[in-house]
Amino acid sequence: MKELLRSNDPTIIAFASALLRGEGIDCFEMDVNMSILEGSIGVFPRRLMVRADDLEAAEVVMKDNGIALGRPR
Fold first, then answer.
1. CA R_g for the chain
2. Are 9 and 55 in contact (CB under 8 A)?
3. Among the four given CATH numbers 3.20.20.140, 3.40.30.10, 3.30.70.790, 3.40.50.720, the one describing domain 2-64
4. Which of 20, 30, 59, 65 could make a disulfide contact with 47, Cβ separation 3.0–4.6 Å?
5. Does residue 24 come out as left (phi exceeding 0), alpha (psi in the -120 to 50 range) or beta?
6. Model confidence pLDDT, tens digit, residues 35-59
């Protein structure tokens, strides 16, 4: 799995997940349960992961829909 997107905004993660699934690209959201530790204030970013083989296609989907890829390069 490769990290596609990192964001503190759960709506961006949900939108990106829906776009990817619509294109037939499997994705997995990580760090969802960190809200237990942080008290649901959104300090820890959530990560959206895709298979390594799907990374390039997923990046194109994000770019075409105006979603900035907030992850370390």
1. 12
2. no
3. 3.30.70.790
4. 30
5. left
6. 666 666 667 888 999 999 999 999 9
